Amino acid sequence: MYLPLRSVSQLLGAKVDYDGKRKWVKIQLNNHVLEINMMTNQTFYDSAEIQTDVKPTVQPAKSVCSLS
Fold it and tell me: Which of 2, 13, 31, 68 could be stapled to 64 by a disulfide with Cβ–Cβ 3.0 to 4.6 Å?
């Protein structure tokens, strides 16, 4: 199952930015930062790299990420 990152994050009160040149999503909430490279499965939480099992994907006008 994939979730639309911007929609879900904003519903939770997070600030979401997307860098189209670098293909990175940055989500900020409660002094925490999640950064996701949409071209790989490289993900950082508060500057520490974390492992993800599934690469995120970009659908027309949406960035989505797996729940796993």
Answer: 2
pTM beyond 0.90, yes or no: no
Token pair, residue 17, equals 């930015």
Which CATH number characterizes residue 39's domain?
A: 3.30.457.10
Report yes or no: 24 and 35 within 8 Å, Cβ to Cβ. Answer: yes
Q: Do you know the residue count of the chain?
A: 68
Of the candidates 65, 62, 67, 31, the one whose C-alpha atom is nearest the C-alpha of residue 47 is: 31
Cα dihedral 20, 44, 55, 61, rounded to 10, equals: -30
Least confident piece of the model among 6-10, 13-17, 57-61: 57-61
Domain count, the chain: 1
Question: Measured in whole angstroms, how far is the alpha carbon of residue 48 from the centre of its chain?
Answer: 14
Side chain identity at residue 33, one-letter code? V
